[in-house]
């Protein structure tokens, strides 16, 4: 692989072609960004940690009937994936109020929501990834009505699994981001990654301590320190949970 052969480089991954046009290779980077890349840095071994966690979770989801782009992980920081056309939507599922939900609604940090909230954001850095309504999604033709319905159903299904899975790791799943894509058969697949980069994860053993409990990219966003240690701790617990079955 060379720089000339890469198909795409994003904030967290580089995508390369393979001999099979239906299969791509994603290489996870150690680069870290926040606030639409206004803040940049690096987290040691982040690419490897996020790839391993994502691979394990994708495999768990596949076993439960959720179709994903995951094929295999040929190296610690690499994932072979099915080629998909990513829908320009970030799908955020919230169980507890945090981040922009608190900023935009005034809800106190840590408020447990009566039911999971599924939100859509437009994947467009120039516009600041704005929050979208269902009608705006349809107006902009970012997805069909059927695809929106399927995404909501899948997002809630994934949320139920992830909440239980992370609870078994001694971690509270606050919220998380998903991305979906269409394969060559126009089948909707879960794509991107599920990791401390894309999830808010709170350590149950830390109680209500607002800083010590954070095990995700908020440690980088908010300059809380010990970012690498937090990511490694999530990896350790995920691997332990998977081994226990």
UniProtKB/TrEMBL annotation:
Pathway note: Purine metabolism; IMP biosynthesis via de novo pathway; 5-amino-1-(5-phospho-D-ribosyl)imidazole-4-carboxamide from 5-amino-1-(5-phospho-D-ribosyl)imidazole-4-carboxylate: step 1/2
Family, as annotated: Belongs to the SAICAR synthetase family.
GO molecular function, one term: phosphoribosylaminoimidazolesuccinocarboxamide synthase activity
PANTHER family to which the protein is assigned, alphabetical: MULTIFUNCTIONAL PROTEIN ADE2, SI:DKEY-6E2.2
Source taxon at top rank: Bacteria
Reaction catalysis annotation: 5-amino-1-(5-phospho-D-ribosyl)imidazole-4-carboxylate + L-aspartate + ATP = (2S)-2-[5-amino-1-(5-phospho-beta-D-ribosyl)imidazole-4-carboxamido]succinate + ADP + phosphate + 2 H(+)
GO terms for biological process, alphabetical: 'de novo' IMP biosynthetic process; cobalamin biosynthetic process
Record's keyword terms, sorted: ATP-binding, Ligase, Nucleotide-binding, Purine biosynthesis
SUPFAM superfamilies: SAICAR synthase-like
Matching InterPro entries: SAICAR_synt/ADE2_N, SAICAR_synt_PurC, SAICAR_synth, SAICAR_synthetase, SAICAR_synthetase_CS
Protein name: Phosphoribosylaminoimidazole-succinocarboxamide synthase
EC id: 6.3.2.6
All copies of domain SAICAR synthetase/ADE2 N-terminal, residue ranges: 6-237
Native species: Fischerella major NIES-592
């Amino acid at each position: 692989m060379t720089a000339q052969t890469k198909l795409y480089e994003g904030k967290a991954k580089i995508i390369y072609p393979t001999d099979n046009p239906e299969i791509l290779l994603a290489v996870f980077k150690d680069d870290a960004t926040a606030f639409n890349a206004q803040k940049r840095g690096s987290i040691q071994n982040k690419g490897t940690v996020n790839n391993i966690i994502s691979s394990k979770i994708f495999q768990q989801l596949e076993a439960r009937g959720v179709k994903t782009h995951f094929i295999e992980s040929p190296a610690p920081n690499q994932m072979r994936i099915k080629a998909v056309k990513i829908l320009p939507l970030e799908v955020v599922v919230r169980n507890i109020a945090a981040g922009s939900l608190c900023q935009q609604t005034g809800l106190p940090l840590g408020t447990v929501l009566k039911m999971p909230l599924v939100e859509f954001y437009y994947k467009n850095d120039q516009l600041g990834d704005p929050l979208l309504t269902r009608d705006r999604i349809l107006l902009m033709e970012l997805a069909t009505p059927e695809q929106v319905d399927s995404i909501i159903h899948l997002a809630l299904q994934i949320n139920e699994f992830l909440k239980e899975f992370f609870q078994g790791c001694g971690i509270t799943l606050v919220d998380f981001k998903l991305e979906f894509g269409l394969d060559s058969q126009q089948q909707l697949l879960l794509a991107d990654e599920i990791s401390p980069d894309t999830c808010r994860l709170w350590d149950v053993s830390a109680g209500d301590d607002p800083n010590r409990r954070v095990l995700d990219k908020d440690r980088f966003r908010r300059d809380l320190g010990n970012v690498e240690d937090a990511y490694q701790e999530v990896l350790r617990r995920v691997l332990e949970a998977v081994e226990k079955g």
